[in-house]
Design a protein that fits this description.
Strand 1, helix 3 and strand 2 form a beta-alpha-beta unit. The protein has one domain: Vaccinia Virus protein VP39 (Rossmann fold). The termini are far apart. The chain has a 7-stranded mixed sheet with strand order 3-2-1-4-5-7-6, with helices on both faces. Helix 2 packs across helix 3 and helix 4 packs parallel to helix 5. It is built from 5 helices and 7 strands; from the N terminus they run H-H-E-H-E-E-E-H-E-H-E-E. Helices cover 32% and strands 18% of the residues. GO terms for molecular function: nucleic acid binding; protein-lysine N-methyltransferase activity. This is N(6)-adenine-specific DNA methyltransferase 2. It is found in: Cytoplasm. Its main location: cytoplasm.
Length: 211
């Protein structure tokens, strides 16, 4: 009988699998229920394998508000590998600014045309309609604490921005951040929803509200 060759799950494993799927369905059901905001931080869970660590709600709000002020009325904001700031920006009415998200994680494609697939290993592999120097401010959080990652992300940032840069990365990257982007460390200390081992800081190249 061919069925003899088909591996069978034990009753215990099957029950555990069914429980997992039920919990997953319940979570999705909560997300699609009335009142759920698809842009709220945590609506898409962190994927640590992609080096994703979401900001705390307070930090994301502070950075989003700073970006709006820096961009000015009618300004354009680009979030490069900074999805939790993008989500916080989308919670605002957005009448006085526009925003897009450049992100490797294709789960963020649920945000439609504002999502742009981005791989820092190919920093200038961008859509033709993403014109150079077309954003009033670029906020970026390179996924890895390495000079190579920062240098390649910096190429993207410099291509996109009209001038203003808001960079979030480790404190140990201060020298490299100044070297590749001409940014200086701020007094404001960003926090994450889960504590990270590495100290994080913000860097800017303009007079910001983060000092």
């Amino acid at each position: 009988d061919d069925d003899d060759d088909i591996p069978q799950l034990s009753s215990h494993t099957l029950a555990a699998l069914q429980e997992f799927y039920l919990e997953q369905q319940q979570r999705e059901g909560m997300k699609t229920s009335q009142g759920f905001n698809q842009y709220s931080i945590g609506s898409i869970e962190e994927d640590w394998q992609l080096s994703q660590f979401w900001y705390s709600d307070e930090t994301a709000s502070c950075l989003a508000n700073e970006a709006v002020v820096a961009a000015g009325k009618g300004g354009r904001i680009a979030c490069v590998s900074a999805p939790s700031v993008y989500q916080k920006l989308k919670e605002q009415d957005g009448k006085h600014f526009s925003v897009c998200i450049l992100e490797y994680d294709r789960r963020f494609s649920v945000y439609g045309e504002e999502f742009i697939f981005y791989d820092y290993n190919h920093p200038l592999n961008l859509p033709e309609n993403l014109l150079p120097h077309s954003f009033d401010i670029v906020i970026a959080d390179p996924p890895y604490l390495s000079e190579e990652c920062l240098q390649k992300t910096a190429e993207t940032i410099k291509y996109l921005t009209k001038g203003k840069i808001l960079l979030c990365t480790g404190a140990i990257m201060e020298e490299q951040a100044a070297k590749h982007l001409g940014v200086k460390i701020c007094k404001f200390i960003p926090k994450h929803s889960r504590n990270l081992a590495n100290e994080f800081r913000c860097y800017v190249n303009y007079a910001s509200g983060l000092d």
